[in-house]
Amino acid sequence: MNVLGIETSCDETAAAVVVDGVDLRSNVIASQAELHSRHGGIVPELASRQHIQAILPVLHAAVEDAAIPWSGIDAVAVTNGPGLAGSLIVGLNAAKGLAASLGVPMIGVNHLEGHVRAAWLAEGNPEGNPEGNTNGNADLGTEPPFPLMCLIVSGGHTELVLMRGETDYELVGATRDDAAGEAFDKSARILGLPYPGGPEISRVARAVPDTKPLPRAWIPGTHDFSFSGLKTALLRRAEEAGIVDEPASEASEEKIAGLSHELQESIVDVLVRKANAAADEYGCNAIILAGGVAANRRLRQVLTAEATVSVFIPPPILCTDNGAMIAAAAYPRLIRGEASDYELDVDPGLRIGAAA
Ligand code: KG4
Ligand code: ZN
Question: Less CB within 10 Å around the terminal CB: N or C of the chain?
Fold first, then answer.
């Protein structure tokens, strides 16, 4: 089954063709990061307008790259939430028009389910490079074995979701304030680093002697997270170090590197320990690490090293937003005959695995 996946929930206009939920035939991503970085963060109206400009060229490129004719597309999958309403609408309307003209089913996909399903894409790096290895410390080509603990870490979400079987999701932990990606992005801003902050923090992070560790919020007895205190602690330390709104110097660069390192260590430590504890409590056979923050090299390394079960991590390009994960998530639903009708609306607050 050839599924065209469309993703426009945030600041990436993306489309991809995936065969049978695993075989990636094309993956086209038009990023708006540069546009938004000029404003220090995402400007929703600019994002919607940029999606309008990019959507048709991206769709054409995805089908052309896949070397499959339009008549060979069997279904159209599209993110209908969570995300920015104005951005989601662009992808959803494109999907409706396309599905109607091709005479194929259209299905709305939960963006977070998409992030998780990226772990099913057979895109492992044969050289076993941890940067590009689909399956962490699991065998390449193996499907993740249920029950699974999914750690979803993105710009807007930090969630632990138990997966007992195909499309069976149960939320067991979530952030009470900021998401991990948000903590990276807001901290980067404090340190004068550009948007998006996660990759920047990771790029400049370096252990600097005598830099004290930043706090970790454990919230004992729960699988929940909290990252807003960490951001406030970093702000205080940055102010003490005199690096807020100051011109760059060699000394400030060293302090920024040290604080970036401590921030990353703190986030990674909490994420890894809490994912392991949840996997243990629910007797899981493996952990899936998913979402944009899963592109973080340190997080990938520490989770792979410390997990007592197999770890599945998509390659970085499939961790950040893309259309392939949406096509992959649609597949198990489509083969069961699920589809959406044309009444389908966007749902900016759509949740995963939670009782309605
Ligand atoms: O999943 P995603 O691409 O978009 C959302 O659904 O939000 O996640 C974006 C988030 C941003 O907060 C970005 O800073 C973070 O993922 N991110 C990273 C890295 N790459 C992206 N955070 C830490 N290290 C990275 N290498
Ligand atoms: Zn995402």
Answer: C
Atom of ligand 1 nearest to the CA of 11: 4
In the chain, which ranges are E strands? 2-7, 12-19, 23-31, 75-81, 106-110, 148-153, 158-165, 168-174, 286-290, 310-312
Say whether both 221 and 300 belong to one domain. yes
Ligand nearest to the CA of 292: 1
Q: Is 13 a member of any domain?
A: yes
Instruction: Calculate how far, in angstroms, residue 269's C-alpha sits from the geometric centre of ligand 2.
Output: 22
Domain that holds residue 294: 148-312
Are residue 298 and residue 320 in the same domain, yes or no?
A: no
Which residues, by Cβ under 5 Å, contact ligand 2, an ion? Answer: 154, 321
Atom of ligand 1 nearest to the CA of 111: 6
Which pLDDT tens digits describe the chain residue by residue (356 residues)? Answer: 999 999 999 999 999 999 999 999 999 999 999 999 999 899 999 999 999 999 999 999 999 999 999 999 999 999 999 999 999 999 999 999 999 999 999 999 999 999 999 999 976 443 333 444 455 666 666 789 999 999 999 999 999 999 999 999 999 999 999 999 999 999 999 999 999 999 999 999 999 999 999 999 999 999 999 999 999 999 999 999 999 887 778 889 999 999 999 999 999 999 999 999 999 999 999 999 999 999 999 999 999 999 999 999 999 999 999 999 999 999 999 999 999 999 999 999 999 998 75
Q: Output the CA 83–ligand 2 centroid distance in Å.
A: 9
Q: Hey, whose CA ends up nearest to atom 7 of ligand 1? A: 155
Query: Nearest 10 degrees: CA dihedral of 308, 313, 316, 320?
Result: -120
Query: For ligand 1, what atom is nearest to the CA of residue 182?
Result: 12
Helices marked H in 128-227:
180-190, 197-204
Tell me if 83 CB under 6 Å of ligand 1. Answer: no
| pTM, full prediction | 0.95
